[in-house]
């Protein structure tokens, strides 16, 4: 019996996932997610679009330097300046890949590129050859392949393989394809392209019709051996194919898929929670694999069946995707070593002892308020610490809020702004609104609130509230996170976190110049 093929998992959470409106990440946040993906044993990590901005370039460079066991990839349009910028960003990568793309559908070539098919092929070949000057690992994508003509796809893919491309990506850029149609496209191209055996076929599916995972799996059944996906299905518009769903489908149904991944699936839940925590995009409870209810059984019939034999209603074990790992409890008597060790188990490390000490101090403060501290609390606590250490021009010193029936809520706040303490007072429609207005009376950021989101980190009335605030100014977006057992304080922390990014201009517009 022959060994199953390896299915390469290409994670684009840091690139396409970040293009979700409001999901921008700082350089340090990208590195944290990159290290978590490395621990998950993802094969390829697409770290960003280096030409998009200086911040994106720095993010790709930082991930390339930090990650050693996964291939780190940078996206580039089929333009010399893009490819050179990607090559520069990947200089310190232990193993790097340049992913270059150009549109191939008639509608894109005519209206966006304003190029004829011969020009598109010529530019694609030139781009691949230029990328080969930086690395032997070159991926080529035919943007909007789902609406492209198969004859032209076969022509351009044959040409770029001859030019040195080792991976051919077939994106369903607008989520238009149907599973049977998309799988057939992969099958026919592999048969028709004379040199198709010299490259790996890849797919990148969007979820506009809710079919990203189905389309990806259909392609795998027809010979695709790389799937581009994201943690939690994060991505532009309706998102991308969900990494956890792809991986567990292939693992659960070996009777249908003659391939396997090398991922450590026990890290899936930890990675999911980290991405959710950093981006502020909560995971819906009924989300497959990583949702809070994914392995919950309320029906008496289901509960009875699972108690008698798990396989009656569960096709996977919760432990296999990392749920059981998340129940280690720390408390007020836990020491620094236990704290550090547990964070290392969660894929979290610190660049200095000072950063560790700051996080440990927050842990002790939290332990005085909350008897049991779970992994979810630690993830939020570290995000809070790292966010604050990112830039602290503005710090929360004190907050007092008065809210009672029949009275207008009133907030008094003291902030440290560039090391100078300043007071502020304001009233509002509620205690959080009053607190935000009191902060704005001091900082005058001029930003507009786009999102205010609250989630409980764990269950129980002593649970920390995790707040995400999204501010917009001049077309740019800043996310802030805050966590505390007091939801108003968590809200103030999140607002100040976003304000700090606004004040430091630590922002970037989303790179919408191209998408695969």
What order do the helices and strands come in, and which of them pair?
Layout (H helix, E strand, L loop, with lengths): L4 E2 L1 E4 L15 H13 L4 E5 L5 H13 L4 E7 L2 H10 L6 E8 L2 H8 L3 H15 L6 E6 L6 H14 L3 E6 L6 H14 L7 E6 L6 H10 L4 E4 L13 H10 L6 E2 L7 H12 L20 H9 L27 H10 L7 H17 L5 H16 L3 E9 L7 E8 L2 E8 L3 H13 L4 E9 L8 E9 L2 E9 L2 H17 L13
Helix pairs in contact: 1-2, 1-10, 2-3, 5-6, 7-8, 10-14, 13-14, 15-16
Description:
With 516 residues, the protein is an alpha/beta fold. It folds into four domains: 5-279, TIM Barrel, CATH 3.20.20.70; 295-325, no CATH class; 326-386; 388-503, Alpha-isopropylmalate synthase LeuA, regulatory domain (Double Stranded RNA Binding Domain, 2-Layer Sandwich). The chain is 39% helix and 20% strand. It has 16 helices and 16 strands. The strands form four sheets. It has an eight-stranded parallel barrel, surrounded by eight helices. A three-stranded antiparallel β-sheet has the order 11-12-13. Helix 1 (27-39) packs antiparallel against helix 10 (268-279) and helix 2 (54-66) crosses helix 3 (80-89). The chain is globular. The chain starts with a strand and ends in a 13-residue tail after the last helix.
What integer is the average pLDDT?
87
Rg over C-alpha atoms, rounded to the nearest angstrom: 24 Å
The proportion of residues forming helix, as a percent range, comes to 25-40%
Number of strands: 16
Count, helices: 16
- Walk across the major sheet and give the strand order: 2-3-4-5-6-7-8-9
Overall, the morphology is globular
Task: Report the CATH C-level class of the largest domain.
Answer: Alpha Beta
CATH topology of the largest domain: TIM Barrel
Largest sheet: 8 strands, parallel, barrel
Distance between the termini: 37 Å
Low-pLDDT windows of residues: 297-308, 506-514
Strand content: 15-25%
CATH hierarchy: architecture of the largest domain = Alpha-Beta Barrel
For this structure, what is the CATH homologous superfamily of the largest domain? Answer: Aldolase class I
């Amino acid at each position: 019996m022959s060994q199953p093929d390896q299915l390469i998992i290409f994670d684009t959470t840091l690139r396409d996932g970040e293009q979700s409106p409001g999901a921008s990440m700082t350089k340090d946040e990208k590195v944290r997610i990159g290290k978590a993906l490395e621990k998950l044993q993802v094969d390829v990590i697409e770290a960003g679009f280096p030409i998009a901005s200086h911040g994106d370039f720095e993010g790709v460079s930082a991930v390339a330097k930090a990650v050693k066991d996964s291939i780190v990839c940078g996206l580039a349009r089929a333009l010399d300046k893009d490819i050179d910028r990607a090559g520069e960003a990947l200089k310190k990568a232990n193993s790097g890949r340049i992913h270059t793309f150009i549109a191939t559908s008639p509608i894109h070539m005519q209206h966006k590129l304003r190029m004829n098919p011969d020009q598109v092929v010529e530019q694609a070949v030139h781009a691949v050859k230029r990328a080969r000057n930086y690395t032997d690992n070159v991926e080529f994508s035919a943007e909007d392949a789902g609406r492209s003509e198969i004859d032209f796809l076969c022509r351009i893919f044959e040409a770029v393989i001859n030019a040195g491309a080792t991976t051919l990506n077939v994106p369903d850029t607008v989520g238009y394809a149907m599973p049977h149609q998309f799988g057939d496209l992969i099958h026919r191209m592999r048969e028709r392209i004379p040199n198709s055996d010299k490259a790996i076929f890849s797919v990148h599916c969007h979820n506009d019709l809710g079919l990203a995972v189905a389309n990806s799996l259909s392609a795998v059944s027809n010979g695709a051996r790389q799937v581009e996906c994201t943690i939690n299905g994060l991505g532009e518009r309706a998102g991308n194919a969900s990494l956890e769903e792809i991986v567990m489908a292939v693992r659960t149904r070996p009777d249908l898929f003659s391939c396997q991944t090398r991922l450590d699936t026990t890290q899936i839940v930890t990675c999911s929670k980290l991405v959710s925590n950093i981006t502020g995009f909560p995971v819906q409870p009924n989300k497959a694999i990583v949702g809070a209810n994914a392995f919950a059984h309320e029906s008496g019939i289901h509960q009875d069946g699972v108690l008698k034999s798990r396989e009656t209603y569960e096709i996977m074990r919760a432990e296999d995707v990392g749920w059981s790992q998340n129940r280690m409890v720390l408390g007020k008597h836990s020491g620094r070593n236990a704290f550090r060790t547990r964070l290392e188990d969660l894929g979290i490390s610190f660049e200095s002892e000072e950063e560790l000490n700051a996080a440990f101090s927050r842990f002790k403060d939290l332990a005085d308020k909350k008897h049991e501290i779970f992994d979810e609390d630690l993830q939020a606590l570290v995000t809070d610490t790292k966010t604050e250490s990112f830039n602290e021009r503005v710090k929360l010193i004190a907050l007092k809020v008065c809210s009672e029936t029949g009275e207008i809520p009133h907030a008094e706040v003291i902030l440290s702004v560039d090391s100078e303490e300043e007071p502020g007072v304001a009233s509002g429609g509620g205690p959080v609104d009053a607190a935000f207005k009191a902060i704005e009376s001091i900082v005058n950021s001029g930003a507009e609130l786009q999102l205010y989101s609250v989630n409980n980190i764990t269950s129980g009335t002593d649970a920390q509230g995790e707040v995400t605030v999204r501010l917009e100014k001049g077309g740019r977006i800043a996310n802030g996170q805050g966590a505390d057992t007091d939801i108003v304080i968590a809200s103030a922390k999140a607002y100040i976190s976003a304000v700090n990014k606004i004040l430091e201009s630590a922002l970037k517009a989303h790179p919408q110049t191209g998408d695969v």
